[in-house]
Amino acid sequence: MKSESFLIQSDNHTQQVIVCSIADQLLKNLSVPVVFFYRKSIHHNILIDSLKKVLSDFPIFAGTLTNINNNLCIDCNNKGALFSVAKEDCTLDEVLRELIVIKKERLVSTINPQKAIANQSPIMTIKLNYFACGGMALGICWHHSIGDMHTFMCFMKAWSNTVNKEEYSPPLIVRDRDEYTQMNLEKNDNITPGVRHLNTKELLRLVFYMLIRARSKRDLQFYFSENELNNMKHEFSVKTNQKLSTNDVLCAHLFSIISDVDAYKKKRCLSIVVNCRPKIEFPQNLLGNFVTNIHMLTNQRVDPFQLAKDLRTSVDNFQRLHMNFFSTKEYIEQNGGINRINRFIATGIDPIKRTLLITSWVNSGVYDVVFRESKPLYFTPFGDYPIPWFSSISEGFSNNGLVYSAILPSKLAKKLMQENNLRKIHKYREQKAAMPELIGELGWLL
Fold it and tell me: Could you tell me if 172 and 193 lie in one domain?
């Protein structure tokens, strides 16, 4: 496989420094790798020329991360995004069949988050793989501190529009993200912070967990057809006598089965990542990590119908019940301040207590990232997170159905793959219902 790499810089650069938010700093040890697969390819020069234009409006993706006065900052210095082009002898279908076992670096130039800050190296990488069949894969990785999935998709849609010679709405970049939130967010009565402070004992336990137990994990993907989701949603609506979203019922269904199969016999937590912007009436083009979690504490024996109702109530009353910007800021200040940010962790991340974190990328527009005649066949997260219990929901092949991707402890993953548990997971699937042809060819898609 031949490969070449180079830095892509914006055509028009204006120097600026962005002060990262508390949320950005809590995510400084994470990067986000994803892959778009296309049946038809487009010449890399077309993508590069358009990328140079888009980076002028999205300079955070071409900058570096640095610490200034104990604050993490994005230096929009136009260092550039690392772009790689590779040619493979195999076909797209062959890669898809092997997707669960191939090395991540084959499709994505992954970013080491800590080294990216320490070495002032690129905080976005783009890898373009061309296949012998004429298809291509676009693997992209970005440092989580520069923005959430919504931020990334603003960038991707702008890139797509530029290639297609269409206009796009310019992003909103604020110089100090926390200051912007404080000035524009109405204060609520929520006193529960979105982080917890780790004392020395808890910090050592987490480090030990990551060094020993966290290594035994496995990546699973489950496919849910439109028919299956409709059946699920119908039963939940009948049982609860309430209008529920697909996300409500799927999260509740999956969490109840995972909890039932797992050996953990204590109260459990489900943490749902929420894009705050529409909930607090912030501009949709605002870049950054404007996300927080809905944290649901349940009994060991989970009632999926009650959980779905509780999720709907939480989402509908998000600003009042779960918007925790002010309480989190105050809690951090009371426990050492931003100087001790390494001693804080988001409440949604607690692998020792088996907290399952679910983020939904549904309706984010991943299948709208079209480059002329090249339309996405499949989009997938492609990361190897340092700890288990991270999971996501995104649309399936050609924007049909949903795929639940989860990194779970190996023992639990093995149990979930057993025939009796797969039947529970897919209890709403009609055996006679037509499934996309490609689904049956992929042994890893359960």
Answer: no
Strands, sheet with 390-395, edge to edge from the N-terminal-most edge strand: 217-224, 402-409, 390-395, 356-360, 268-275, 291-298
Query: Whole domain around residue 138: which residue ranges?
Result: 2-179
Burial class (CB in 10 A: 0-12, 13-18, 19+), 121: middle
68 and 130 inside one domain: yes
Same domain, 47 and 194: no
The CB density around residue 420, as the number of other CB atoms within 10 Å, is 8
Tens of pLDDT along 352-387?
A: 889 999 999 999 999 999 999 999 999 999 987 888
CATH number, domain with residue 224 = 3.30.559.10
Other CB atoms within 10 Å distance of the CB of residue 225 = 21
Same structural domain, 129 and 269: no
**Spatial distance between the Cα atoms of 375 and 368, rounded to a whole number of angstroms:** 8
Is 446 within the bounds of a domain? no
The pLDDT assigned to 433 comes to 65
Dihedral sign, Cα of residue 317, residue 320, residue 325, residue 327: negative
Backbone angles phi, psi at 378, to 5 degrees: -155, 140
pLDDT tens digit string along 305-327? 999 999 999 999 988 888 999 99
The pLDDT value given to residue 208 = 84
Q: Are residues 41 and 73 in the same domain?
A: yes
Region 280-284: mean pLDDT is 95
Q: How far apart are CA 304 and CA 171, in angstroms?
A: 39
- How many whole angstroms separate alpha carbon 66 and alpha carbon 28? 11
Spatial CA neighbour of 430 closest among 254, 231, 222:
231
Q: Is the residue at 421 inside a domain?
A: yes
Going from the C-alpha of 214 to that of each of 16, 114, 138, 398, 413, the distances in angstroms are: 39, 19, 29, 33, 13
Question: For strand 124-130 and strand 136-143, is the pairing parallel, antiparallel, or unpaired?
Answer: antiparallel
CA-based nearest residue to 124, from 334, 237, 287:
287
Are 71 and 210 within one domain?
A: no
CA angle 56, 57, 62 (to 5 degrees): 55
Structure tokens at 320: 């009042």
DSSP 229-249: HHHHHHHHHHHHTS---HHHH
